[in-house]
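DM from R.C. (forwarded with permission)

"hey, sorry to bug you on a friday — could you get me a structure for this? deadline for the figure draft is monday and I only need the backbone to look sensible"
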Amino acid sequence: MTAVALAGVMTGPGPAAGHGPAAGARTEVPGFPRRGRCLVMGVVNVTPDSFSDGGAYLAAASAIGHGLAMARDGADIIDVGGESTRPGAGRVQEAEELRRILPVVRDLAAAGATVTVDTTRAAVAEAALAAGAAGINDVSGGLADPAMAPLAAAARVPYIAMHSRGPSAGMQRRAAYDDVVTEVAAELRARLEALLQAGIDRRRVVLDPGLGFAKLPAHNWQLLRRLGELTALGQPVLIGASRKAFLGAVLRRADETPPPQARDAATAAVSALAAAAGAWCVRVHDVPTTLDAVRVAAEWTAPPGEDSAHS
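My reply, with the result:
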């Protein structure tokens, strides 16, 4: 993303207008690290078909090595998933999902990493927690499996609830909104209430607007520009923009769109802006560049006269 493009993004309301860390979102989640800055979640896809790096880490040894490298690079959380949730993706069998992720979760947790399991199945989440996972990242927000919310409540672990509108195979057909930010916020609020009624501790609920999930590119940008309306829900907000197609469209040159791995600088730019606007965590494929970006954002938004050296 060029400096001119960055300047254009920054013309919207900033922290002083209620879009920053002071906007009211919780910034600490029991069970997850505390850093005094936006956290960085590294993605480990143990799948053959994820949009960014499908197949690169399908073997357990490769996935474990990748997760350990992310931890060494400074990732605060490692998110391990065994089923692609890209638009149009089909389901895998529960047994196969378990086969893919359990050795990875077990070894990363044993090495001291804070691990989340990226799944919509309660049985998979339960097995991953038993293997050492610290939390659950559910792209369905608890809608795919009615047993998920009771499990998270009983386990007393952090639960990340993402906004979407149905399974990956058909979700883009539901990407119709009059006002995407207002509607996503309302649907997330409804999910939050349902999760609280299921017994999940409010302090452990993280909300994710689900960029690219039943969203068109214009919807993603609106959600990012008006992030303060999501942090105003009072919960930590996770942003997952990493390498997604809407970033590729911005970076397009002539008739060529850069591949996902060439979108890391744009991802870091969005991560910095989201962190400055109050995001609690960003979920990314490339940890070092984004960690630098959120550290800069922490300094950018530090109170005047405060010497902040965020880890």
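R.C.: lifesaver. The CA atoms of residues 27 and 236 lie 6 Å apart.
me: no worries. The longest helix spans residues 180-197.
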